[in-house]
Amino acid sequence: MIKKKITIKNSAGLHARPSAQLVKLASKFESDFYIHSYGYRVNGKSILGVMTLAAEHGAELELELDGSDEEDALEAIVDAIDNKFGMADE
Amino acid sequence: MNTSTKQQFTIEGKRAAPGIAIGEAVVISSESKTVTPASIKQKEVADHKERFNEAKLSLVAQLEEMSIGLSDAATAGIIDTQSEIIKDPELEKSVFDIIENKLLSVDFAVYQTYCTFIEKLKESGSELFRQRIIDLEDIRDRFIAEVCDQKSVRSIKKGSVIIAREISPTDLVAFYEDGASGLVMEKGGTTAHAAIIAKSLGMPCIVNAKRASKEAVKGEQVILNADEGALILRPSKETLNGFKKRLKAQKVAAKKKCAEGFETKDGVPYKLLANIEFEAELNNVGENGAQGIGLLRTEGLLFGKRVRKSTEEQEAFYEQIVSGTEGPVTIRLFDIGGDKNARRPQKEANPFLGWRGIRLLLDEKKLLRSQLQAILTVAGKYPGKVKILVPMVSVIDEVRQIRNEIEKVQGALLSSGVDIDEEIPLGLMVEVPSVAISAYQFAREVDFMSIGSNDLTQYTLAVDRGNERIHTLFQHYHPSVLKLAEMTVKGARKADIEVSVCGELAGDEIGAACLFGLGIRELSMVPSSVSTINELLSSHSSEDFSRLANKAIELSSSEELEQFYEEWK
């Protein structure tokens, strides 16, 4: 199991569309994916879970990955978050 | 509920399609706001889980259908999000947990699961996320409708009467094909899409029947007396026998009535054609004496359970209709938008004034070209028989662009060795007042014009025809609408092209008489109206109709026209 702390960089936060992208990406990997935020822990492959985090711009999250491809999964997810999911800020 | 009293009970509604139907009530409750927990037996668990899975697949498939031609990133993002929500593993876990461990029905399991998540979002306190709650509620309701829908579609007996708050056109056709014989809707006016289709299928139908789906009990025998706008629940034996006799007598009379000639008393010829949407309606066309198809609606190919959107599938559909019809067939290009677009993810504040008809098609070139290719290929096999009709034109440039597209597709077909009909007539729908007002300028650009009276009325009187609160304002022979028809005829004559009418107005006695009087010689209507209209037009002289029409456009309301018509008749 690996963990990493990250910060949300989208100006609008982790709203529906980036949540969908994050979940879609995470679902491609075998590893279980959880997100910790201010005492909550949600399934990172569940869009409803991710949305209930209501992570706004600047929110600090801890990513937890557990499985055979955890390294690759973490790298891909961190990349996506750092690149603001390839979207221009609206 | 009135189940305890076994007495006969009548619910009144508004007649949308005539006739009588006697059969078992099939009640479709689409009210999902108050889903109550219903317990299930252990052996039903697998079935309820299966229904969840089927609904999930069906909803995801519907989203994929919706995304046809939608290439912009924002829309794709919305569809992605909805799709991920429907497939959410936590949602499934929670739903299955409620079904398996609490032994509660799948609709309640979905309801409770979504409500729990919605509560969590509300707690988050973020305004941005609160907005998402509407999306979740929307998906929740669609999910529940889907789960319940499958249950009701599966078990219907021949002759059943469908009772619903409202129903989609495709569901209605599915019920029709399974043997349903009548339709009762709580909502909607007589021009709601499903009501029009019921009329076309020859299915008795009433709308605006308040509380019908709450009072009716599934499986009980009911009488739908659409002629008098009544649904009779728990009928007495005497009532039932009386209606059975009436039903029999009506069927005999209908067979006897046959179209004779298509000319007025003084020998002025006219054409009566049929409006249809499905192959199932082809039988009704010949049976009622229609001389061809004046309006083939095609948007049913794009949505719901009977999707056939590939060029090949469309071609097969058009060919079936064209080869199965004796006379000409006017194919209207996809008229998506307005009320036929309820599932499109981008909500518009004013969908009827928004992205619909030709406006949408010119943005969605892939969709447009695949339809044109299918129509033009079939037209080449049956030269002189097929016409193309463009919906929702409001400015001239739209027609020019369509003609350009047709020429491009024809060129491509020719160079790949496919025969085409070089002379294929191109027409436009007169639905927007601008077209009627500048009729001559539009008429110069096309080969024919067809007045879509429903939309023309809606845009002239500014009445949403699906809105039950104001449906009385939707008066389709309001003198202002007839005046626009007159302007259209004048413009068309100057440009030497024909005008037809393909809305409800054409199948209405007063409407047809006035339109004929204005000089329109081609009326297209639901097949079941053809014999009535033929009787009317053949029993008066063209002068009589002119006199009626000249007076009609001078009147100030529909009521006045109704009164005058009674005197004229």
Question: Keywords, please?
Answer:
heterodimer, A: 90 residues, alpha+beta, 4-stranded antiparallel β-sheet, 3 helices, 4 strands, 26% strand, B: 569 residues, alpha/beta, 8-stranded mixed β-sheet, 8-stranded parallel β-sheet
Task: Describe the protein's architecture and organization.
The complex is a heterodimer of chains A (90) and B (569). Chain A contains three helices and four strands. By secondary structure, chain A is α+β, with helices and mostly antiparallel strands. Chain B has 569 residues and is α/β, with parallel strands linked by helices. Chain B contains 22 helices and 16 strands. In chain B, the strands form two sheets. Chain B has an eight-stranded mixed β-sheet with strand order 1-8-7-3-4-5-6-2. In chain B, strands 15-14-13-12-11-10-9-16 form an eight-stranded parallel β-sheet. Chains A and B meet through helix 1 and helix 2 of A and helix 2, helix 3, helix 4 and helix 5 of B.
Oligomer: heterodimer
Physical arrangement of strands within the biggest beta sheet of chain A: 1-4-2-3
Low-pLDDT windows of residues of chain B: 150-154, 341-345
Number of helices of chain B: 22
Instruction: Give unreliable regions of chain A as ranges.
Output: none
- Class from helix and strand fractions of chain B: alpha/beta
Give the integer mean of the pLDDT values of chain B: 85
What structural class should be given to the helix and strand makeup of chain A? Answer: alpha+beta
Tell me the helix content of chain B.
40-55%
